[in-house]
Amino acid sequence: MKLHTKTLANGLRLQAVEMPGTNVVTTLILAGAGSRYETLEIAGISHFLEHMFFKGSKKYPTPKAVAEAVDAFGGEFNAFTGKEYAGYYVKSGAQNIEKSLDVLSDMLLHAQLNQAEINRERGVILEEMAMYLDMPTYQISWDFEQLVFGDQPLGRDQIGTRELIENVTPAQFKQYRNELYVPKNMVITVAGAVNEKTLETVAKYFDMPDAEQKRKMTPFDANLATKKFRIREKKTEQYHLSFGVRALSERDEKYAALRVLAVILGGNMSSRMFQHVREQKGLCYSIRTTVDEYTDTGLLSTRAGVKLDDVLRATEAIRAEYDDVRENGVTDLELENAKNYLLGKTDLNTEDTEDVAHHFAKNELLYAVRESYEDWKAQVAKVTKEDVNSVAKELLIPGNFRFGGIGPAIEEAKLLPLIS
Predict the structure, then answer these.
(1) Where do the structural domains in the chain lie, given as residue ranges?
(2) CATH number for the domain formed by residue range(s) 228-419
(3) Is-catalytic flag, 50?
(4) How far apart are CA 287 and CA 273, in angstroms?
(5) Which of 8, 161, 180, 402 is 20 to 30 A from 143 in CA distance terms?
């Protein structure tokens, strides 16, 4: 794997990642235009704008024309909006890279953003919002972020508010696009069957005028979240919970140790949560501990779907694992297995052109670093048992615990001792 880079005169950063042995190319554009750039008045505009880029442009004037352009060569075409950036990509055979660039550049540089398409898309996004509300496995993650981060952009759902969805105007879209979709705030990465000359091809399609980035990411304020728990009362057949703590940022020197800790706790089928809470106690079907990382903070949380009558028992069992790892630490075998698990998963990721493109584009956009997969593996390999135990002692303390749930009401008097 070989990385080629080029920065154009307007500040647009281009990357080509050579991956021998594949005939596939992922063409990915990342822009620093996620929900952390929004105020409450325009909460959700990043996500809505992502949808609108697919609704017609100069060369491909209708949603059907945009879709047909990629379907015609069997490409995979999608986009996503996160807290800190939005992404647009086409995955295709190497012979179709210019077609991919043609579609992506036209939709991003020449989107029509007309009123009729906006009006039609309002209903689509409202239905998307309703879908997530009906899917507690998704909604619990957003509810937990809102609990831990509080009422600020980092704590809000990317999908935004109903008020914004129902009232946003073409002028607001154009202003937001012009403030953030500028060369210095974007990275274009092609990964797969490419080489250094591919950068010249990419540059042809993105001849953008230089412009100032006029909107900045909202810094995280740790003082805005004070609640211990958040329950969304809902009639469900299964109770969905998320129990965890605010954690470390992705660039923290202890981040690799945090990832190892998460694997030991609940990252796979041999983890403590899976074996003790599911297999031995039979309290849930699904349970997993994950890390969500941002530029200035993060989360470590265990999510589970449990029987309605077993919510408190499951919470107590998860708490017991947190307490045990904090007080007694991890074993040598757990450390070795968790590190090998992360190293193996990293190797698998290097075969996926989409994952590779995202890895390099994200690091460049958010941190202006060019960290390879080997760099990350070296960080994991260096993690010691003392490193993991130190992170557990720092984070997994009762005062840090937060609990989010979706399901029938829970007696506060019974829940609080388990999360305090």
Answers:
(1) 2-205, 228-419
(2) 3.30.830.10
(3) yes
(4) 7
(5) 180
